Amino acid sequence: MSHRKPLTVAVFDTKSYDRDYLKRASADGAVAYHFLEHRLNAETAATAASATAVCLFVNDRADRECLERLHASGVRLLALRCAGFNNVDLHAAERLGLTVVRVPAYSPHAVAEHTLALLLALNRRIPRAYNRVREQNFSLGGLVGFDLHGKTVGLVGTGKIGRITAGLFSGFGVRLLVSDRFPDAAWAASAGAEYVPFERLLAESDIVSLHLPLTPESRHLLNASAFSKMKPGAYVVNTSRGALIDAKALIHALKNGRLGGAALDVYEEEEGVFFEDHSGDVLADDTLARLTTFPNVLITAHQAFLTHEALTAIAGVTTENLARFAAGQPPLAGTLVHA
Length: 339
Known about the structure:
By secondary structure, this protein is α/β, with parallel strands linked by helices. It has helices at 16-25, 64-72, 90-96, 108-123, 126-134, 160-170, 185-191, 198-204, 224-229, 247-255, 286-291, 308-326; strands at residues 7-11, 31-35, 53-56, 77-80, 99-101, 152-156, 175-179, 193-195, 207-210, 234-238, 259-264, 297-299, 336-338.
C-alpha cells in the first residue's frame, strides 16, 4: 500500500531487532519510522514532535498526561507492537479522539514454546548443569528433577497462547486442568482438558502456568492467599504479564517451601530493568534481586516473544495498520483497541 507522503511515526523503546524488522516491513516507503531508544512517558512525549503516530511497546507509559501532550503535538494514532494495552489510558484516548491499535496475536507459538522451555530448564536444572560442565565439574548432585509425564498441569487462561501451550503439554502425557472466564467446552473435549474452578486448579496442579491478560481483576491473581491454596511443592510459570503475580508473596512462598519453584519471563516492576544491560550496576530493585538468588527460580527478561516469526508478524501488522491509517482505511481485523 502506498501514498504520496509517508506517515511519520515515532517508535519508542527500540532495540536493534525492532529497527531491523520494522525497516524491512516498511520497504515500500508508505511509513517513515523515526526510531527512539528511550521509553515513552509524559516527560519524553515531546520527542514525538512532527509525528502523526507513535509506536509503543510494553513498558512505555501512555497515561493521560502523556496522551494529552502527544495529541497537542499532532499525534492521532497509537500503534502498540504487542498484544497487551494495559499501559494505555483508554479513557483519555477516547476523550482525545486517538485511535489505538495493537498486534493481538504475533506468534502464540513463540510464547507457548518459551513456557515449556523455561519449565524444562528449571525442572532439569539445565542452567546449573551447563555452568558446572563449563568448569569441568561433571557431578550430578543437586540436579534431580521430575518427570512431567503423569503430572497435573493447570493452565489459567485458554486463549490462543493457552491452547497452544495445552497442546504442547499434552505431548508429555500430563493431566490438563484449565480455568477461564469464558470456557469453551468443545475445545476442552478435543484437547483432553478439563475446565475447573480456579481454586481447584490451584489445589490439584503440580504446575500452574499463567496465560491471561493483565486487568484490574487479574492483577496479583497469584497472591499470598492463592499460594496458600496451591499443592505443596508446585511450580509456577508466568510468560504473560508480571503483575499477575505478587512478587513479594512469591518470595515468601518460596522461602517457606510452599512452592517448588518459579519460572518467570515477566516481572511486575520490570520497567527500567528488563531490555537493558545493567551488568555493571547495582540492582536497585530489592525484590527482583532477592528472586535471582533462589536456586529454584529461573528468570528470563521478557523474551518469550523473541523469535523471527513473531518479530516478522509484529512488524508486518504494525506497518500495515499505520499505512491503512494514512490512507484513511480501517485497521486490520481484530487489531483495533479503540477508535
